[in-house]
Amino acid sequence: MTPDLMSQGAERLEKHKFKQVQTSASGDRDASFSRIHQPGVLDLTHGRILYLEDVNVSFDGFKAINNLSLDIGVGELRCIIGPNGAGKTTMMDIITGKTKPDSGQVFFGSTINLLHHNEPDIARMGIGRKFQKPTVFEQLTVFENLELALKTGKGVAASMLFKLNGTQKDRLSEVLHTIHLENDLLRQAGNLSHGQKQWLEIGMLLMQDPKLLLLDEPVAGMTDQETERTAELFLSLKGKHSLMVVEHDMAFIRQIADVVTVLCDGSVLAQGSFDAVQVDERVIEVYLGR
Amino acid sequence: MTNITLPQPVRLLSPLGWTVFIGLLLFVSLLAPALNLWLPVSHPLHMSDFAVSLVGKIMCFAICALAMDLIWGYTGILSLGHGLFFALGGYAMGMYLMRQIGTDGNYTSELPDFMVFLDWKTLPWHWYFSDSFVATLLLVVFAPGLLALVFGYFAFRSRIKGVYFSIITQAMTFAFMLLFFRNETGFGGNNGFTDFKRILGTPIATPNMRMLLFVLTGTCLLGCYLAARWLVQSKYGRVLQAIRDAESRVMFSGYSPLPYKLSIWVISAVMCGIAGALYVSQVGIINPSEMSPANSIEIAIWAAVGGRATLIGPIVGAFMVNGAKSWLTMVAPEYWLYVLGALFIAVTLYMPQGVVGLLGSLKQRLQAGKGESS
Questions:
Q1: Inter-chain touch A123–B242, beta carbons under 8 Å
Q2: Residue A165 at interface with chain B, using a CB cutoff of 8 Å
Q3: Domain extent at residue A240
Q4: ipTM rounded to 2 decimals
Q5: What's the total number of domains in chain A?
Q6: Using 50, 70 and 90 to split pLDDT, how confident is the model at A180?
Q7: Do residues B133 and B95 make contact, with C-beta atoms less than 8 angstroms apart?
Q8: Contact assignment for B235 to A96 by CB distance below 8 Å
Q9: Cβ contact (<8 Å) for B236 and A155?
Q10: CB pairs below 8 Å between A and B: how many?
């Protein structure tokens, strides 16, 4: 190293320091003012992964969603309950881009307006959805189902030339293990039991590595043992992912819930811990009737 | 974490598959010409000119059936308009062959006969490049390809599915048939193109040229099969099947179905176009009746009879149905359409997997039987 190079290096270091001082100075404003807004990148600095505000949807005059406002924290496991027709599935349709609301705002993180995106975009940005009725690719094997869901290039050319690499193989094995289907990976998905299909679909969500999981009745049709294992799985996902679980199985909800939101007639009726919600008069009223 | 052995990627063809494939390639490209051209007519193994033209024709149909399998069998989109793409490829080739007639036509004019008959003085604009063979080859690919691209884009973007899509494709081919029937369109009206003399300057109706076209068609069919096989075995092919089985899941897995449907639709149309070009060079005639709705439906029947989503099935189906057709139209021509209809109903009701699927399940049953007895 020559003295010449050393002095050049020192000069550059000096410049760099100066630049850094410049960029970090926020001029006494709130730090968020100087944050760079990158389109399409999830911004979680406010600790909220999903905001719904004053959302309205009506189908032929029937108000399925009525001034619904709801927000979900980063890493939170939120349970949604409510009587039939309360708008739970419609809410998921709105979040995933399947249904466009008549009015209101839906934000993913602080910056991504979900109303401007379609279903595949929203899925790629990190919202995974499990349907009420298990929906897997029946003619393909368990392995192929998971491989398709893998987070990777989803374009035509990328798919034509796709080959699993080592990391992806590890991820696949990990998920297969998590969903207890490692012995069935060559079975056709259509031949799995109902509970196994539910698991496979959850596995497909995990392969996408989503930030937010929307799970519509994930334990419907599962045996008690399978339900137990699902509860364990969800609790282990909490923290790493944000989850929104819609379920009718109260025992299951009790097992996993921190915060329960009760939907009724398209808006939030009550929200709080499971025990608090359970004794809420209005909740008892809509569930039992007068 | 336990170690799980993940399945290896599937090979394009198994060793047995490759053997059969190369065997067929050799048969088509070497043995068939030898049997037809070199063996004397009296020899028992001689391949007659009739057989050459029949098999050559059926191989063109088999390419169409293969194309239909990609879009219907694998992607679940039933097209009843594939005959149009076939005819467009055929018309592109036909234009070139018409120009190759030169001044040998009935009217000894530079213009094709039907234009002289209509008292046209110059070539219409869409005939400008028809004397170039290269431009013709491009047209064979791009005419059906572009039409499919535009039509498919609007249809798939509007999420038109199922029977509605089938009906629209059927209407499309019918509309084009009416268009091509008109003399003003400049494609010879209801007579179409015929009476070809030369291709690339050499006479087209010689045994050697017929054999050359046969070999070309055969290799093209095998090539298309290999390409289709590659497509279907890649992840792309699995996304197509996923679209067929649960399109909403595909969308929520982050795939946009439009480019997938559109690409396979265009690939399928182009394959049909190529088949049409080969067909017209061999049979020596193309007219708007090739665009009639019944022709497109027949393509679907070949695929259904052979077995959807098997690739090999539709090829087998094309050979079986067309073989039966050429025999029956000689023996009892008036019954053919009834037989075809009955065949379609029987296949849909009793063997939804087609002939190949039936053989597959028989084989499985046999193996299961063996397993029990041993």
A1: no
A2: no
A3: 48-288
A4: 0.86
A5: 1
A6: confident
A7: no
A8: no
A9: no
A10: 105
